[in-house]
Recover the amino acids of this structure.
């Protein structure tokens, strides 16, 4: 048998094993109780998605509609991060206490689709200019509310902060960021990984969904040290780690990684052409803002989170730094539904208007619920 034939057989064998593994992962770790999918076309031709979970009707609850709540994932994640499993499902929790929720997939995540002619790369600016306005417009059309409440984890909060003073000006009624920095200082090893991911993304993106292959081993074997930068794994149960790896990861855009690296190197939070200073825009925001962080978060360290909070000049602003929480576990940690979600609910009840019944308008000056 020739060397070439041996290599072909070996390659086909590995491909078959990977296909079997992926099929097993899709079957064994399928997430249940999925919300309604809504496809939205952006101005530049992308099809992005929102996943709607309607507010649950509760006996004795007000029949008035609230401003819809938008939940946005972070870098290399998709909507399943906000629509996870069991008690670790922020969208379902908020729905159960009366909020209409829409979990997003930004371009490149989930089953979003590019126009036939591309493009095959994206930046944070593309999320800000195209994805967010299109998604908010569609959610406003469906809900009848000109404004939304935004809850963003990590990059999901960063893009909202960038858009709130630009493309979504006067469209966000209240904003909650979870592990979202505006001052960037990543661990050196993470910066090197970002550069490696860029090098491995000759066609515009590094497909992190390949991590699904190791889902059956997550929580059963020691995790690489870099994993602790993305979450305090002690706060995530082993079975949840397997579901996480199987469902939540999404490709990373080369343009986004390059832009993030520039923010780290030059201590800035701005558009790629440097004409829009997003950080300066944060200081102009006046909607109610809740900043949530973890004392063990390596991507949004406590010092950076506190500095971000001090930049905020909103008349209604709150800071919550949770002990022993890392990055991702702020949303999907084993006790997040007991220690983080209630903070979100309490803040929303205090600042979110309860508008008049449908047909009577969504005007300013309505009383808080």
């Amino acid at each position: 048998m020739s060397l070439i034939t041996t290599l072909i057989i070996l390659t086909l064998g590995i491909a078959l094993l990977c296909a079997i593994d992926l099929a097993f992962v899709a079957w064994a770790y399928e997430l249940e109780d999925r919300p309604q999918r809504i496809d939205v076309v952006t101005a530049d031709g992308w099809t992005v998605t929102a996943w709607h979970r309607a507010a649950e009707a509760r006996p004795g609850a007000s029949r008035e509609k609230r401003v819809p709540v938008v939940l946005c994932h972070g870098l290399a994640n998709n909507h399943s991060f906000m629509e996870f499993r069991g008690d670790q499902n922020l969208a379902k929790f908020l729905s159960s206490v009366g909020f209409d929720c829409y979990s997003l997939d930004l371009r490149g995540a989930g089953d979003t689709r590019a126009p036939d002619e591309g493009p095959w790369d994206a930046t944070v600016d593309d999320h800000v200019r195209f994805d967010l306005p299109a998604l908010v417009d569609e959610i406003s059309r469906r809900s009848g509310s000109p404004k939304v409440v935004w809850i963003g984890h990590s990059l999901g909060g960063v893009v909202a902060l960038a858009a709130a003073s630009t493309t979504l000006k006067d469209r966000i009624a209240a904003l909650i960021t979870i592990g979202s920095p505006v001052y960037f200082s990543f661990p050196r090893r993470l910066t090197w990984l970002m550069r490696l991911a860029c090098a491995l993304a000759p066609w515009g993106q590094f497909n992190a969904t390949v991590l699904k292959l190791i889902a059956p081993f997550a929580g059963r074997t020691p995790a690489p040290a870099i994993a602790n930068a993305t979450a305090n794994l002690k706060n995530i149960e082993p079975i949840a780690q397997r579901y996480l790896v199987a469902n939540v990861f999404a490709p990373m855009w080369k343009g986004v990684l390059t832009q993030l690296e520039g923010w780290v190197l030059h201590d800035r939070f701005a558009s790629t052409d440097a004409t829009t200073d997003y950080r300066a825009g944060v200081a102009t925001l006046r909607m109610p803002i809740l900043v949530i962080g973890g004392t063990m978060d390596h991507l949004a360290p406590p010092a950076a989170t506190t500095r971000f909070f001090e930049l905020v000049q909103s008349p209604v602003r709150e800071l919550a730094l949770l002990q022993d929480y890392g990055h991702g576990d702020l949303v999907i940690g084993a006790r997040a539904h007991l220690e983080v979600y209630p903070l979100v609910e309490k803040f929303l009840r205090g600042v979110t208007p309860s508008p008049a019944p449908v047909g009577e308008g969504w005007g300013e000056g309505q009383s808080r619920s």
